[in-house]
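Q: For a teaching handout, I want to show students what a protein-ligand complex looks like in token form. Below are the inputs, and the small molecule is PMV. Please produce the holo structure.
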Amino acid sequence: MTSPAFHAFGKVILLGEHAVVYGCPALVAALSTGVTVETPPGIGRLRVPAWDLDVPPSVYEGGEDSSAPTVAKAFAALEARLGVQPGARRPVDYVVRFAVPTGAGLGSSAAMAVALARAVAASHGIAASMTDIEEAAMASETVVHGRPSGLDHTVSARGGFGVFVRGQGLSPVVAHDPIPLVIGHTGRARDTKGRVARVAELVAGPDGAAVRARFDQIRALVERGRAAVELGGPAGLTALGEAMRENQRHLEALEVSCPEIETMCRIADEVGALGAKLTGGGGGGCVIALAPGREEIVKKVWERKGFATFITEIGARQKVSST
Ligand code: PMV
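A: Here is the structure, written as tokens, with PMV included.
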């Protein structure tokens, strides 16, 4: 008999990164893939084979000052938030498997936290609500990222599409259809921290008013993108692609792009994508391309240039039964 497994989605920011830091909305979506946590019989070891990590409870229960890896401290915070007492008997191990690249801005750490929270709740017989799962994931993400906006784990837990506003959370967007997307990695680490700092300099600099005017234009693109997702069909996809293309121009002007991102966008354009842009912090990381019916072509040309690529669908929804 196979042991129970628990899932959570990765995410993409379709439109609005960086401007979202200044109060603009961002259009976000769950990936159809993410993270799975398997729970074979065990004693509560946290195992992440992709990172060669295998941490027993005696180590992750050591508290904030212990030498445990950050991910294990994050796990301890998550367990504590769900009410698991130190020294509790744990009947299973937690084995984390990634179906999305890690450290790429695709929400892998949040998806890991959500899937682990679900696995912990189930293995201890805790009847956790969606809010309990989200709060446990937030506790974990706070250990990993310091002060996360909460966007990643909320999308990861709930799935679908949404508009995220800092301080206000996520409002669901009801899409006409899920949307196929091509995601390629620049091969360069994304630089969320550095790029956020650079935008802050631009905002505070002599052209600050022009930068803020750009944020207003991005806000309008997010509105157009949301309407496009709701509309669906060829007209919706064309409008979404156009909004992505325009958003990329603004992101270049905000100095959060990089040569690899621009090469990938140009190549996608040449083979007929409706739109392509960076997703997340930029400076590296991933590029997303909307190319309905031409996904395989975009994948092929990106891979030919050495950019690791996968095709996925966005807007997948969580099945209620698997919480
Ligand atoms: O690179 P990611 O997926 O962590 O996204 C960062 C998004 C920013 O808007 C650049 C920063 C933020 O905190 O919203």
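A: Two things your students might notice: Residues 268 and 298 are 6 Å apart (CA to CA). DSSP finds ten helices and eleven strands in the chain.
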